[in-house]
Prior knowledge:
By secondary structure, this protein is of the alpha/beta class. 34% of the residues lie in helices and 23% in strands. Strands 1-7-6-4-5 form a five-stranded mixed β-sheet, sandwiched between helices. A four-stranded mixed β-sheet has the order 8-13-12-11, with helices on both faces. A two-stranded antiparallel ribbon has the order 2-3. Strand 12 and strand 13 form a beta hairpin.
Amino acid sequence: MGARIVGTGSYLPLHAVANSDLANLVDTSDEWIVQRTGIRERHLLEPQELPSGMGVAAGRAALAASGNAVDDVDLVLVATTFPDMICPGTAPFVAAALGTGDAPFFDLTAGCTGFVYGLAVAEGFLASGLAECVLLIGSEALSRVTDWNDRRTCVLFGDGAGAVVLRRGSEGSGLLGVSVHGDPEKALLLHMPAGGTRLPASHDTVDARLHYLRMEGSGVFRSAVPLMEQALERALDKAGVGLDDVDWVIPHQANLRIIDALARRLAIPRDRVLANLDRVANTSSASIPIALDEAVRRGQIRPGDVVAMTAFGAGVTYGAAIVRM
Ligand code: UT7
């Protein structure tokens, strides 16, 4: 039965920050950032904005595009790595602001692969009859957990949200195949040391700057390409389609060098691989739904097109989904 994407939406904060602005904060340059990452600017939340607010804006846009009303939604699923509050997360605030009544909601934490994991969960709810209309949102405010003194990470991330509305599909339409995986041995490649129950917040943890995202960049880089490729092949297998049937690949937007390397390994023409990270940077679990929504809205992705999404992220998690739009 599967799941069909019937509407997309996204939201980027208005405040755009160029590489040259970051060169005033840390020892970096526009040239280094562009050459090593492909990023030119990112959008950052204003102090009064929240991940839930971005999720609401993206969710409303997706509902409007889908022709569904808030009352139709019977699951609100929010993929996010850094929620509004560790407890109760982001989803209840999104659900309250949207007004989805007593529909269930929950956060899904799977790092930057959160949106792809979310597609798998949404499909399960729809196929089992637990839901008829799922609002899946990826919303991330990485600027809130970025160490703005650390040039190795602060140039990489941006804030934003993307959303899709899913309903049950029919044979050969919608989610054709999804494949999600993990490699827990690499758990510490990307992590925030303190603030959880392992190391609760204290004066010492704050003094030691342990509440920021830490990343072993080159380790993540080395794993990213083979893992995204592997996941994509497994999802294609499940979907029963080949790469030649795929119109567009949307990889997680972490680094243009990773995206270029993936395109080379897949031997897929580069113009069929979508990238928007020059404008938005790495927005973690929001990156794929933002890129998807932008391509749908500019008419690049059309109804009937086959889109392959592939991601990797903290955990490490990785996964891919093949969708007929
Ligand atoms: O969503 C998943 C999460 N993250 C990722 O996917 C990120 C994956 N990794 C990457 O994208 C890349 O590894 C980075 C962009 C983070 C780093 O690029 P790299 O080519 O792997 O550089 P590097 O870490 O090997 O560092 C090379 C040099 C170092 O200087 P030394 O030790 O050679 O003197 C760094 O200190 O570049 C230096 N460097 C910088 N220089 C200017 C690191 N960050 C910066 C910076 N500006 N922002």
